[in-house]
């Protein structure tokens, strides 16, 4: 082979290596819309608002990228892009100084970061304490020779301490400067290095002042602030970390040839048969094929009582199989499972941008040029005023340090993280951080009826006299329909008669809007509306409910009832007690809507089509009201999207859940006032944090410019401001929401008069 051929081979190999990240990125991406995919990257070096703005701006400028969103808490980036091939996301970030890799949901770089911070803190604290011993002797009036010796000894201790403990700040600052940008660590690094450099200069020239103690102590206090910030972030994100801990590592798959093999979670695909032992968590959303067990489904329902699992039961990923082995069929991949969706919702809530956060980010963006200019002008001003360049540089160092906007950068996202955690603990998933801000502004609530105020699960009226033979025939016909009334008939038959064999599919026909028709033993049976099922001259043609008819003659009448959701009355009382107006908009007929409205004491409108709900919400908006829409059905999706904020139960139709800002997982309707309460408290804490952060700079900067702050005091003040802001955000997790519960009572039933 010639050297040219060798060169071509090497070039081809390099091309393959360069394209490999793109191929992996394409495989790891997921489709979220027509010609729209999303890729999730882990970027461990993200640590401040400047990083967020830089990464989102750089990735957003790539061809094909529609949206890039950074989550500071998780140090992850979600990118939505179009096209057949993914944009060069990883390569672009690497060129800008950010090492990135595909996020598989398992890496936790923060744990390594915490260890690094603790080691750096220990080294700087040890060095600071020893240098302080020499400083005390110098301050006590040591002779010049002794003073110079102690200064040199202090410098020998400070140099390795700064080299090791300062890496946390120096690496970040150098990476930013090397790529033509700046971040919060640049002025910190400049301040620490200037203090050390001045001390070396003073010691070399026999000067009386050295700041080795200040430079190392400064680093020590800065590290205290950053370590506490890191620990508090981890505490705030305990909900997301707990969810990740519920994910199974893999499952035992039953292969087509009868053999068994263990597959890691990412390799599980829909259609695979999985053997699930007692004590194992469900790896992906599944359908039970064989076996019977008890299931801990508290993750989904919030109820501690185990749920009975039989063949045909659907299982959500992350739930726990308690008592018996099960054979299940995977219904979704790991990335599309219930647990993965909850994780995405939680992280989307943390990464969302509210109005207040956008203000804080705009202010932080101006930080670097303004603080560097302020420090330079301060130094120049003191030199011109006093001629003492030593004092001028010392004051400039203090200005550089004290103005670090860490508190401002944390003011909003920390509240969002804690609020998302608080809502998750209450069984409420937030899809967008901005939704919390809109939710806090709500002054009117519009509620759907079926599936929202009521369970949406009709059942036969208790005590209804229905002949067992007629019930069995009705159940055999109803088995071919997914209509709620058909399912209610089937459930009642199973409870009274046991399993009922269905009618052969070829003998049953469905008449939408009317009912089911079947031929059995030469007779024509109909199950549905009375005016359709019965002959014109047959008695009972005007009866309500669902009837079973044979050759046009009435055999049985089935009446149904629905139940209000748990705590529906308490939820409505809590909303009205907090100054919110509430009303019911339903597409159902007037009698059942009126019955629910009277039970709850609410105004109502019935037979509302989707466009009518949207028009009503728009009318309320024109009146100056900010409406929260709570609904669950396909017909509620336009209204959910049109409202100022929206909520949907977990059993809502897919399109309804996608349109809603928040999804509540539990049966209780108290989720609505709870979410409103948390949103309002979060808004209060955000305002308090912004006041603390801005007030701190407004007070601290003039004092530092006037020369009343040393670099050491500046470091302590800056760290304390960040700690105060984070601690204030954490107050939300300990508050009790003002919701009054009524004494426990059976949920009222609401008779249905509609066939």
Automatic annotation (TrEMBL):
<dbReference type="InterPro" id="IPR001757">
    <property type="entry name" value="P_typ_ATPase"/>
</dbReference>
<keyword id="KW-0597">Phosphoprotein</keyword>
<keyword id="KW-0479">Metal-binding</keyword>
<feature type="transmembrane region" description="Helical">
    <location>
        <begin position="186"/>
        <end position="204"/>
    </location>
</feature>
<dbReference type="GO" id="GO:0005507">
    <property type="term" value="F:copper ion binding"/>
</dbReference>
<dbReference type="GO" id="GO:0005886">
    <property type="term" value="C:plasma membrane"/>
</dbReference>
<keyword id="KW-1133">Transmembrane helix</keyword>
<dbReference type="InterPro" id="IPR017969">
    <property type="entry name" value="Heavy-metal-associated_CS"/>
</dbReference>
<keyword id="KW-0813">Transport</keyword>
<feature type="transmembrane region" description="Helical">
    <location>
        <begin position="690"/>
        <end position="709"/>
    </location>
</feature>
<protein>
    <submittedName>
        <fullName>Cu2+-exporting ATPase</fullName>
    </submittedName>
</protein>
<dbReference type="InterPro" id="IPR018303">
    <property type="entry name" value="ATPase_P-typ_P_site"/>
</dbReference>
<feature type="transmembrane region" description="Helical">
    <location>
        <begin position="391"/>
        <end position="412"/>
    </location>
</feature>
<dbReference type="GO" id="GO:0055070">
    <property type="term" value="P:copper ion homeostasis"/>
</dbReference>
<keyword id="KW-1278">Translocase</keyword>
<dbReference type="Pfam" id="PF00403">
    <property type="entry name" value="HMA"/>
</dbReference>
<dbReference type="InterPro" id="IPR027256">
    <property type="entry name" value="P-typ_ATPase_IB"/>
</dbReference>
<dbReference type="GO" id="GO:0016887">
    <property type="term" value="F:ATP hydrolysis activity"/>
</dbReference>
<feature type="domain" description="HMA">
    <location>
        <begin position="37"/>
        <end position="101"/>
    </location>
</feature>
<keyword id="KW-0547">Nucleotide-binding</keyword>
<feature type="transmembrane region" description="Helical">
    <location>
        <begin position="120"/>
        <end position="140"/>
    </location>
</feature>
<dbReference type="InterPro" id="IPR023299">
    <property type="entry name" value="ATPase_P-typ_cyto_dom_N"/>
</dbReference>
<dbReference type="GO" id="GO:0043682">
    <property type="term" value="F:P-type divalent copper transporter activity"/>
</dbReference>
<dbReference type="InterPro" id="IPR059000">
    <property type="entry name" value="ATPase_P-type_domA"/>
</dbReference>
<feature type="transmembrane region" description="Helical">
    <location>
        <begin position="366"/>
        <end position="385"/>
    </location>
</feature>
<feature type="transmembrane region" description="Helical">
    <location>
        <begin position="210"/>
        <end position="228"/>
    </location>
</feature>
<dbReference type="InterPro" id="IPR006121">
    <property type="entry name" value="HMA_dom"/>
</dbReference>
<dbReference type="Pfam" id="PF00702">
    <property type="entry name" value="Hydrolase"/>
</dbReference>
<feature type="transmembrane region" description="Helical">
    <location>
        <begin position="715"/>
        <end position="732"/>
    </location>
</feature>
<feature type="transmembrane region" description="Helical">
    <location>
        <begin position="152"/>
        <end position="174"/>
    </location>
</feature>
<keyword id="KW-1003">Cell membrane</keyword>
<dbReference type="InterPro" id="IPR036412">
    <property type="entry name" value="HAD-like_sf"/>
</dbReference>
<keyword id="KW-0472">Membrane</keyword>
<dbReference type="GO" id="GO:0005524">
    <property type="term" value="F:ATP binding"/>
</dbReference>
<dbReference type="Pfam" id="PF00122">
    <property type="entry name" value="E1-E2_ATPase"/>
</dbReference>
<keyword id="KW-0812">Transmembrane</keyword>
<dbReference type="InterPro" id="IPR023214">
    <property type="entry name" value="HAD_sf"/>
</dbReference>
<dbReference type="InterPro" id="IPR023298">
    <property type="entry name" value="ATPase_P-typ_TM_dom_sf"/>
</dbReference>
<dbReference type="InterPro" id="IPR036163">
    <property type="entry name" value="HMA_dom_sf"/>
</dbReference>
<comment type="similarity">
    <text>Belongs to the cation transport ATPase (P-type) (TC 3.A.3) family. Type IB subfamily.</text>
</comment>
<dbReference type="InterPro" id="IPR008250">
    <property type="entry name" value="ATPase_P-typ_transduc_dom_A_sf"/>
</dbReference>
<keyword id="KW-0460">Magnesium</keyword>
């Amino acid at each position: 082979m010639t050297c040219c051929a060798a060169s071509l081979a090497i070039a081809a190999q390099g091309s393959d290596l360069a394209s490999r990240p793109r191929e992996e990125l394409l495989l790891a991406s997921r489709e979220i819309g027509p010609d729209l995919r999303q890729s999730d990257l882990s970027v461990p070096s993200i640590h401040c608002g400047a990083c967020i703005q830089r990464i989102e701006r750089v990735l957003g400028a790539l061809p094909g990228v529609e949206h890039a969103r950074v989550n500071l808490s998780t140090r992850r980036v979600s990118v939505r892009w179009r096209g057949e091939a993914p944009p060069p996301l990883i390569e672009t970030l690497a060129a800008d100084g950010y090492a990135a890799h595909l996020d598989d949901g398992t890496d936790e770089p923060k744990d390594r970061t915490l260890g690094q911070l603790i080691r750096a803190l220990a080294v700087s604290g040890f060095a600071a304490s020893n240098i302080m011993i020499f400083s005390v002797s110098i301050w006590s009036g040591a002779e010049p020779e002794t003073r110079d010796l102690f200064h040199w000894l202090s410098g020998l201790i400070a140099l390795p301490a700064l080299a090791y403990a300062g890496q946390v700040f120096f690496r970040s600052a150098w990476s930013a400067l090397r790529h033509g940008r700046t971040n919060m660590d640049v002025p910190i690094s400049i301040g620490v290095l200037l203090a050390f450099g001045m001390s070396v200069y003073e010691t070399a020239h026999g000067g009386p002042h050295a700041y080795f103690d200040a430079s190392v102590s400064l680093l020590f206090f800065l590290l205290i602030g950053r370590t506490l910030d890191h620990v508090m972030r981890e505490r705030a994100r305990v909900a997301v970390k707990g969810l990740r801990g519920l994910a199974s590592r893999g499952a035992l798959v039953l292969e087509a040839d009868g053999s068994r093999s263990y597959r890691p979670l990412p390799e599980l695909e829909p259609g695979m048969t999985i053997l699930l032992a007692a004590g194992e968590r469900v790896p992906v959303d599944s359908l039970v094929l064989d076996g019977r067990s008890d299931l801990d489904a508290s993750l989904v329902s919030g109820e501690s009582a185990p749920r009975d699992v039989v063949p045909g039961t659907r299982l959500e990923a992350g739930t726990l199989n308690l008592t018996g082995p099960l054979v299940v069929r995977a219904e979704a991949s790991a990335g599309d499972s219930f647990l993965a969706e909850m994780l995405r919702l939680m992280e989307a809530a943390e990464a969302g941008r509210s109005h207040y956060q956008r203000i804080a980010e705009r202010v932080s963006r101006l930080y670097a040029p303004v603080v560097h200019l302020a420090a330079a002008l301060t130094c120049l001003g003191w030199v011109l005023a006093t001629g003492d360049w030593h004092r001028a540089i010392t004051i400039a160092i203090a200005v550089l340090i004290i103005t670090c906007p860490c508190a401002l950068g944390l003011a909003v996202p920390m509240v969002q993280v804690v609020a998302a955690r608080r809502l998750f603990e209450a069984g409420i998933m937030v899809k967008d951080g901005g939704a919390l801000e809109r939710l806090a502004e709500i002054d009117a609530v519009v509620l759907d009826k079926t599936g929202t105020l009521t369970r949406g699960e009709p059942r036969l009226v208790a005590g209804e006299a229905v002949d067992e033979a007629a019930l069995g025939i009705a159940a055999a016909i109803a088995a071919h329909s997914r209509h709620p009334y058909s399912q209610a008939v089937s459930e009642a038959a199973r409870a009274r008669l046991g399993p009922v064999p269905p009618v052969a599919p070829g003998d049953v026909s469905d008449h939408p809007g009317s009912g089911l028709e079947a031929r059995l033993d030469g007779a024509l049976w109909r199950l549905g509306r009375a005016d359709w099922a019965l002959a014109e001259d047959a008695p009972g043609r005007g009866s309500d409910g669902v009837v079973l008819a044979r050759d046009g003659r009435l055999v049985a009448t089935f009446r149904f009832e629905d139940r209000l959701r748990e705590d529906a009355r308490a939820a409505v009382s809590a909303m009205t007690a907090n100054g919110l107006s509430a009303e019911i908009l339903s597409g159902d007929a007037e009698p059942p809507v009126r019955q629910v409205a009277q039970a709850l004491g609410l105004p109502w409108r019935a037979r509302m089509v989707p466009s009518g709900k949207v028009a009503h919400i728009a009318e309320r908006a024109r009146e100056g009201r900010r409406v929260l829409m709570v609904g669950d059905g396909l017909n509620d999706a336009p209204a959910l999207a049109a409202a100022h904020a929206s909520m949907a139960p977990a059993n809502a139709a897919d399109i309804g859940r996608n349109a809603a800002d928040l999804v509540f997982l539990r049966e209780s309707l108290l989720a609505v006032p709870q979410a409103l309460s948390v949103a309002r408290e979060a808004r209060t804490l955000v305002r308090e944090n912004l006041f603390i952060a801005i007030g701190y700079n407004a007070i601290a900067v003039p004092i530092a410019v006037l020369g009343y702050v040393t670099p050491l005091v500046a470091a302590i003040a800056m760290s304390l401001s960040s700690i105060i802001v984070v601690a204030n955000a954490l107050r939300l997790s300990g508050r009790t929401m003002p919701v009054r519960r009524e004494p426990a009572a059976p949920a009222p039933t609401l008779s249905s008069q509609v066939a």
